TrEMBL record:
Organism: Paenibacillus ginsengarvi
Domain of life: Bacteria
Pathway: Cofactor biosynthesis; thiamine diphosphate biosynthesis
EC number: 1.4.3.19
Domain FAD dependent oxidoreductase: 5-349
NCBIfam families assigned to the protein according to its UniProt record, in alphabetical order: thiamin_ThiO
Protein name as annotated: glycine oxidase
One Pfam family recorded for the sequence: DAO
Gene Ontology molecular function: flavin adenine dinucleotide binding; glycine oxidase activity
Length: 370
């Protein structure tokens, strides 16, 4: 008899897990109170940059991110083929800019350990940097160049995932307003605001920033909370930025549609997703210093999403010992898009009773806070 899994949450993590679980032969029903991809997923810049964004050491989180980057070429092809929906997957590489000579030694050290993990990065001089990015500030004295990093256009990627899920038979029910968990041990059962009941063998909690609200329900500590991330975009039809470009303050990334995305300004605002002038002003205060042409421009689009941050910065990923029918995939913070393939593979491996990666995945034990 086919095992039936209920997926709670229609963001990029829930959709990715549903897609992989269905590909492996499970019956899958995905349940979403609002709309699929409506929070952190659709609002993300879509960067696949584990080297640029993990700068200190090759800890388990970095290794998980790197593993996911390595899965992306095949993963994005599969999503496109199944969905029949194209989305931008750009292997542009990235640059991490350097402003001060005192930072060179630290960048050399970073280059050393990251190249041991396949980064293939080079430390560029100011002249070499401006050959790659002619319009970058003259204040930059160099950069680390990562040729293997890439990005996706997140809104289209999430739409393609949803379409792929539907095409292979995942049942998606969104707009349910509220979902109450009736049973999560010895099987799974949930109820919508309208009283509709959904039953399965296993419940996968993948509802992003809302996972922390289930602590009392499961009797375990789930320190996942929302961080508002504000982003803006500029109309740049001449595509003046060729790479993902990082600095200590944030990033800019050019998209195929001619927009230049700048992010991200973060603050704690509960579940509020309103854009604030203060938040966007933070972005404007530094992006014009990175690319001077932005100093005379104003964003044409501003938006915000809720990023599911965990207490230690690592996601909660796996099967709690307290239940034979509960899985958790939450707390991915800024890395939901990047981590979507590896999370889907890990969850599907666990659902099949397989070892998803040994000690590397043990660091993300969902019961570690309990």
């Amino acid at each position: 008899m086919t095992k039936h899994i209920l997926v709670l949450g229609g963001g990029v993590i829930g959709l990715s897990c549903a897609f992989e679980l269905k590909r492996r032969g499970f019956a899958v029903t995905l349940l979403e109170p609002r709309t699929c991809g409506g929070q952190a997923s659709g609002a993300a810049a879509g960067m696949l940059a584990p080297f640029s964004e993990n700068v200190e050491q090759p800890d388990p989180f970095f290794k998980l991110c790197l593993r996911s980057l390595q899965l992306y070429p095949e993963w994005q092809r599969a999503v496109k083929e199944v969905s029949g929906f194209d989305f931008e997957y750009a292997e542009t590489g990235s640059l991490y800019t350097i402003y001060h000579g005192a930072d060179i030694q630290a960048m050399e050290s970073r280059k050393l350990w990251q190249n041991e993990h396949g980064a293939r990065c080079e430390l560029l001089s100011a002249h070499e940097l401006r050959e790659l990015e002619p319009r970058i500030t003259s204040d930059a004295i160099g950069a680390l160049h990562y040729p293997g990093e890439s990005h996706v256009y997140a809104p289209d990627y999430v739409k393609a995932l949803e379409a792929a899920c539907k095409r292979i038979g995942v049942v998606i029910r969104d707009g349910l307003e509220q979902i109450d968990i009736v049973r999560w041990n010895g099987g799974a059962e949930v109820r919508s605001a309208a009283g509709e009941r959904f039953c399965g063998d296993t419940l996968l909690v993948a509802n992003g920033a809302w996972a922390g609200l289930l602590e009392a329900e499961f009797g375990m500590s789930i320190p996942v909370y929302p961080i508002r991330g504000q982003i803006c975009a500029y109309e740049t039809p001449d595509k003046p930025v060729r790479h993902m470009v990082f600095c200590s303050q944030g990033y800019v990334v050019g998209k195929r549609n001619g927009t230049l995305v700048c992010g991200a300004s973060e603050d704690v605002a509960g579940f509020q997703t309103a854009v604030t002038r203060r938040g966007i002003a933070r972005l404007e205060s530094w992006n014009g210093k990175l690319f001077p042409f932005l100093g005379s421009m104003r964003p044409f689009h501003e938006w915000a999403g809720l990023r599911p941050a965990s207490q230690d910065g690592f996601p909660l990923l796996g099967k709690p010992s307290r239940s034979d029918s509960l899985l958790i995939a939450a707390g991915h913070y800024r890395n939901g898009i990047l981590l979507s393939p590896v999370t889907a593979h890990v969850i599907a491996d666990i659902a099949e009773g397989r070892n998803p990666g040994g000690s590397a995945v043990a660091a993300f034990d969902p019961e570690r806070f309990s």
